């Protein structure tokens, strides 16, 4: 279904920021500012610093544990044969890396 042909109920379910059910970084910054004594600028810097630290650790191949949420880690993917959609042509997909997320058992129980 194209963007222009979305049913009204689907369009109405999206938030005004256009992100649907996704929470944006600005919303996290606002929440941190509300929950702490930091102003919005300081909260933004704190959130950015945390994300930079997590990304740096993942680039180094380290795991990132977030208590109560889960663990992010980098895993290797093996080279494999895939099929190009539409043409059914077999293609080689090279080995690579991906970020994996394992949900914490406490969060899993709460959902």
Automatic annotation (TrEMBL):
The keyword rRNA processing does not apply. The keyword Metal-binding does not apply. Residues 1-11 have a biased composition (Basic and acidic residues). InterPro entries: Hist_DNA-bd, IHF-like_DNA-bd_dom_sf. Keywords: DNA condensation, DNA-binding. Belongs to the bacterial histone-like protein family. This is DNA-binding protein HU. It comes from Deinococcus aerophilus. Pfam families: Bac_DNA_binding (PF00216). Residues 1-24 are annotated as: Disordered.
